[in-house]
Protein 1
Amino acid sequence: MVWPNNPAGAGCRAGPYRRHIVFVSEILSEKTGGRMSDTQTAAKSGFILPRFDKLGVLIAVIALGGVLLPFMIFRANRIVLGEPRMIFEALATPEALVLALLLAAGMVIALLRFRAGLKLAASLIILIALFVLVGRSAYFLTPPDDNFARISPGAGFWLLVFAFALLAADALTRLRLKPWPRIGILALVALAFGILLATGSLNGVSTLKEYATRADRFWSEAQTHVLLAFGSVLIATIVGVPVGIISFRLPKLRAALLNVLNIVQTIPSIALFGLLIAPLAWIAATVPGASLIGISGIGVAPALVALFAYSLLPVVSNTIVGLQSVPEAANDAAKGMGMTGAQRMGWIELPLAFPVILTGIRIVLVQNIGLTTIAALIGGGGFGVFIFQGISQTAMDLVLLGAVPTVVLAFAAAVVLDAFVEMTSTGKPQ
Amino acid sequence: MIEIDAITKSYDQTVVVDHVTLTIEPSSVCAVVGTSGSGKTTLLRMINRLVEPTSGAIRIDGEDTRNTHAYELRRKIGYAIQGHGLFPHRSVGQNIATVPKLLGWDKDKTRARVTELLELFQLDPAQFRDRLPRELSGGQQQRVGVARALAAKPNILLMDEPFGALDPVIRSKAQEDLLTIQRQFETTIVLVTHDMEEAIHLGDKIAVMDEGKLLQFASPQQIISKPATPFVAELIGTGERPFKLLSLARVGKFVEPGSAEGDPIDISATLRDAYAELLWSGRAALPVSEKGQVIGKITLDQLSSHARPQ
């Protein structure tokens, strides 16, 4: 290790000097979050780099690619092939200049080693600017009184969003925020987009034009989607946690059960949806009252059953793993002090296993929000309806109307549940 | 009083504890010593029925332990284990309050008891009550573990290698604290250890076990001077015997009138400490002091005569 300005002086004994170095480098590693300090990096690689951030280089390259690819796509109507529009073609000159300056500044900030707070602020400003300007561009590019033209964001726009979202995510990781501030930032971002959508500044964009013609349908499918994804996870939790507890106590059952659930997990999702059509149709036809409560071969019921089946393995296995991770000494002490089996489960085992169980629930929730799109294939509804309609009509805007909300929902669920997992694993909620 | 009567535990064909019979007097410390696999932990765990015996009986104050529910029995018996076994998600105060809570003590009584115990173990209640176990040092965690075992004022305390994870300095301090508390509350302690030194230091009686059998159950003096089998002798270590014997007695009992040259030794020191000091300083006698006043001397000759069986 190169250590300039030996602070302990040249004539000192090796012992305290070494201690001193360890001490200083500990402080450094604490500040840089375990990363090597610049001097260390330079010393290791053998030449002095300017203060470049490695991930920043990647981000700048992606952003540069974004600038060079078409910012917007213009189509005279919904299904014709699009024509690319670069930044300076897609926006009025002053706005294009502002965007160019912002992007240049953003790339410089990404490249150099600035504080994480500054990087986060820069990336958020650029992201908001990108979305605002996409809205402006849509109005700018639409010929007057033309209802058929479709203006959609191009590959350049999406690459830019990706680059600066990456920058924001990296900055957030480095900031090591506590769970509540993380949820707060998520809420602020959601609020910002809510305002953008509510004020209509994005209404010129093609996907929102698709939305405008089917707003009612959108919200009812959204409701179905949330119901299917959250409902299946809820049922899987209610069933899976007790099953996990029982099979934790009975090792023979555990092995058999986990094998079955593993096999279920390997069935392709479309096949599982399809497989359920016959038995559920049979139940609906033969069991009295079954069809009255909504059971049928196609529709919501098989979708819910399939999603539930997929959720069961992660919930059950995480419950078992969580219970297994309870320190043996704590369990032995609990038993030795006279706790009954139920008391140990309620006071010691479940609370200690809870963060792991919650992690399982987070996995299935994010997974099911995505999987629910397939439910549309068997008439289950949800955002998948727009995706499959869009595919069949080769209307990408319609596909995005289904895909974007799905991704946003899954992302938000992941952030919120990650925060909960962290809160519970510290032992006590803050 | 704990009466262990021909207790046996076997798993399938393997006999882990083989017809062990011994009686532990009230308010005494019984140290169970043996190598790993000797059955000492199983013997301990049969006392509070964490392990159910295959045959034989255990009576506590004349009452067969099988006459009460296992969990009710355990609430009346303190239990402390190696690595403390504290509940990581509960505060120090909640950990200590475990058995009182199980027994349904009211809040004020429990809180007062937790305060009392924290003070007894030299942990400031204001500072430590609400901390989580992982925020404590190893020695502090161990003290909380013992405090928790004593929370409901049990007459009997079972300890399984309670000091096994501590470094030597903290370990001897913890041993002293345990003896002080044991004398104060007259608790009957059954302590499992693999360390003969610890057993000699803490035990009023020592039970030596090997391969499930009780080889010898006697006072430390007898164990050292008259080991029942070669294995017991080996556990003590023949080269160590004189020093172990010396470590059992205190200087106070052997003070002679008169004085000697050099720094004095305190009256509460063991004969072993005095012997070491004599050898180290090359003297034939040491002045003995009590509260800073020299009250007599102790000589090398006298020590030598006590370093072998009487």
Note: Chain B has a mean pLDDT of 91.
Protein 2
Amino acid sequence: MGPHDDDLDEEIRGHLAINIKQRIERGEDPSSARLAALKEFGNVPLTRDSIRSVWRPRWFDAAEALVRDIRFGFRALSRAKGLTATVVVTLALGIGANAAIFSVVRGVLLRPLVNRDEDRLIYIRQIGPGIGVENMNFSVPEVKDLRSRVKSVGAFGEFSTVDFAMIGLSGEPRMVKAGVVDGRFFEVMGLRPVLGRLLTPNDDGPKAAGAAILTYRFWSTALNSDTSVIGKQIRLGPSPATVVGVLEPSVPYPVDTEIIANIVTSPHHLGATMETDRGHRMTELFGRLAPGATIEGARAELAAVHAATVSENPKYYSSQAHVQLTIARLRDQIAAPARTILLVLLAAAAVVFIIACSNVANLILARAVRREGELAVRAALGAGRGALRRTLLAESLVLCGAGAVLGIALARPFVALAAQFAARFSVRALEVTVDPGVLWVGSALAMAAAVLLAYVPRLPSAHAPAGLGLANGSVRITPGTNRRLRVFATTQIAFSFVLLVGAAMLLTTLVTLQTANTGYDMRKVLAFDIPPAATGVFSPNMGDFLQQATLRVGQLPGVDGAAVGSFVPWRDTGQASITLRFTVDGYTRADGEEDPRARIRFAGPRFFNVLGIKLVAGRDFADDDRQGRELVTIVSQSVAQRLFPNGEAVNGHLRVIGSTPRRVIGVVADLDDEHVERQPAMTVYLPVRQGGFAGRLFVRAAGNPYTLVPTVTRIVRDLAVDQPVERAATLEDIRADVLSPERLNAFVFSGFAGIALLIAVVGVAGVLAFSASARTREFGIRLAVGSAPRHILAGVLAEGMWIAGIGIAAGAAGGFVLVRVASKFFGAVPLPGALPVIGAMAVLAGAAVIASLMPAARAARVDVLQALRSE
Amino acid sequence: MAKNPDTQRLDLLQGTLDMLILRTLQWGPEHGHGIGQAIRAQSDDLLKVETGSLYPALHRLVKRGWLKWEWDLSEANQRAKYYRLTAAGKAQLSHEQDRWSQLVDAIGRIMNPARVAAGNPGNKD
């Protein structure tokens, strides 16, 4: 396109030659003719250049100018390092944090599962809203009913969780979490094997051979992807099984298991109770929508069928529970626990981004005002408004571009951090990586910010008299500029306040939980899992085994006592918890009152002593409280106080529904072993050797508890070779582990609030420094006429406090509205208590003081002569 | 520069240069130097086109398809680029001529209302 450079040169040479020839013909001297011709022609390179530009597309010129301006911008910014660093880091934090949270939200909530046609896959739950049960699972007769009557769900897959003691795959006997499934499960789930085969309906029924599938994670980590594992014989508890396949990597739900086996491996599943008892619910139910069926249709049909079964079998569905059936897409079901927390974090990240943007706008605005002198000079020298705007655009492009690049670099570690955090709520978070789409969005946002920022400052007009500003290049702030700066700073304070209050709320909750008195001797007590069902020996000599183990462990040096029980506080919540109704002799219910419910816990002798639970009245269990002797029980204080006259329970009688009455021999302090937030809990303790079981061993240590672990394990194994002894931990560590989601929440949120606070402090300091430096002359004059420096100091400080005050007020008002709005969508959102609010206020006010101190001190130190001379 | 006879010279109205070039080339192909000279001569030295405007304008007209160029030997015995009107260029010329006379007429009415009322002498010139 267009002529070549040589072509242009020749054309120009031709022009000159003709001119020279004509001049010579007119009688001019050849050398002077040549000079005259050149002079007449004018600037040759310029002409050539403007010819060339005719042939270039329009955008090319603009782009070229922009590149030039960007280079200029780089040079200009390298002279303002502090500002550049602040803007770049601020933007990078904003973009990085957003990229991380967005990546996790997309990865956890929105990404499809690997399962075939995963959007047709549903998870079915039976819920009891009346008694607060979120998922009561299904019994085999219930599943049969659904299977035979529901048309819109093409196939159902059954899954139940079983703990097996597994022998034969990885060294010692080990407890593994396993899934027991029917033959249609994998077909319904739409999963494939990576090795061998999966289970089919041929593996169903009591006569089938035991078959086990390994999950991909277990196979690739614990077994180093050993392909020879197929065909290996293993033992799952008492039953033998063959490893037949390895499952492809997929999201484990409802639990992360190591193996999945067919029903025949679990003797319990073959028993009559499982098969015929409608109330024996331990099956999780998955379904695949029939072709053409919609999820709404399936929901309606399932609900109708379920309602019919409920009315046919009223005795299995307590009217109080309002048992219902609910379904969700599997993907949504998996994401559900993480949803709220991720959305909250998303909001926090967005707030940080807003703060970051407003801070950057602030800094750039202040810089533009400082440069008004320079811009006025350039306008006077003939730079058009477009050119000036382009300079500003180039500079903010450089700034925001650098911020975006650094933000993208930060995104990877941020994503890793956020994914680790989110893994507490959803297994899917483990696979989250930086989402490239998110990075594009981040970069686009940065560019949008750059363009916007270039249009924030006003340009000097070439026609307006620039006057003094032009003459001395000094800073003059119009009230408008000042107001804009303050609005930005106030916005930052307001948003930071909201975040700070949120963080403070989480922190206070955490501190309350961590320092709460639990009623246990948490540091000295070591808990072990010694699952009895594991070996399949629910045998009569289990009692002897436990008594022997306790005795021998108790005699170890460094051990102050040992006891068995059925429940490790907090850790066993949800799985080993049993609540039963009971009656008390001599207590009559009021009309309409149901029988009281209590947690049932089995305990061996010395249990209360070992755990440090206070015995309020009566005696502890003894070795003699066994089968064949008098049936006894120990109750917690709230049971005694609520149900026995004058709270005197000892020697009273209590009957757990469905069993014989027991004599109360002791009363112990109330404890809450299920919730980290202590709630009143009525508990009834029964002796292990009177028809109970005990899979937990508690050891009270004199010194460091963890040094006892190997010896205790060895002693138990000496008594029963295949007995797993696992998960040794002190109660303190167990509680800390249970609290870790709370701690992580508080940590991440505090991180956001910290970033926001930092940015806001920089923002306030920047605004004050700017307005103080613009008032140098005013301060000089005031000092000259006798004003005390501390008055000036106080004035600037007051300005800072004023900004902070308005910001806090706005934040408080906005936060209150936010809570109100959020309550509409998410149900009750708690308002923060006084302590977090006051704390956040104090932190922000303190930060504002610190931010104002430097500019204030500088204002008070203004050199009078210097200040006045500069006019 | 300031004190020579050129002070009488007129500045070209924006956008008229293209029209003048097209008009000049109506009588046949010419090189850049000749076009400049022709405009100057025909305006009795009142209009002088700077080379810095002339050549970009020529190239612009070529780009729009109104002119073509060909190389030929000039009177200086050197290769020169001769510009020639294309068919589109001819159409453009007559279009611009119409527009120009309308503009002159309109401006004339405003600047000299009396003369217009007397019988529009503007067109008779």
Note: The radius of gyration of chain A is 39 Å.
